[in-house]
Amino acid sequence: MKLLVVGVSLFLSFSTLAEAGGVPPPRMPSPEGQQPQSQPEIAVQPAAEQEIFAMPSGNIGCIYTPAGGTSVYQPADGGPELACDIVAPRYVRATLGRVGAATLNHAVGDPSCCSVGTVLDYGQSWSRGPFSCVSERTGLSCRRDDGHSFLLSRAQVSAN
């Protein structure tokens, strides 16, 4: 009788462990001829870097974001994107995206111009991706390969 009680106790103990997750579930054999499915490989691209440049006056500064964005910022259309801020006579941000006309934002919520980056001296030009800019004493003009552009100067702010 003692042996029966011990046997039942052990059986109940192992059953409780199995239900509580203490024993792994049995492995089911895979159907014949079926290969185990492998997980698709995911290509991890390193985050690209933004490029910052400013005019010698310190009144205009630009940030170029390459296609795909960065680890902290992704353009709405996937990029690339060129955004330039002018401080005076009023704060305005001009942006050229991957497609469409340049836009002007007169109510910038995060004014951040003009950090010390590369200085684009007067008479110099800059280009990355589909964008190119020319620095002149009268202002900065930037365009995308398809002709859409913006101009930032103390005398005029325009986009098309």
Can you put this structure into words, describing what you see?
The chain has 160 residues and is mainly beta. It is 11% helix and 31% strand. The chain is built from one helix and eleven strands. The strands form two sheets. Strands 5-4-3-2-1-6 form a six-stranded mixed sheet, with no helix packed on it. Strands 7-8-9-10-11 form a five-stranded antiparallel sheet, with no helix packed on it. β4 and β5 form a beta hairpin. The protein is globular. The termini are far apart.
Mean pLDDT: 80
- Rg over CA atoms, rounded to whole Å, is 31 Å
Number of helices: 1
Distance separating the two termini: 96 Å
Main beta-sheet strand count, sense and barrel state: 6 strands, mixed
Which series of helices and strands comes N to C? HEEEEEEEEEEE
Strand order of the largest sheet: 5-4-3-2-1-6
- Share of residues in strands: 25-35%
* Shape category: globular
Say how many strands there are.
11
Low-confidence stretches: 1-31, 34-44
Helix content: 10-25%
Oligomer: single chain
Secondary-structure-based class equals: mainly beta
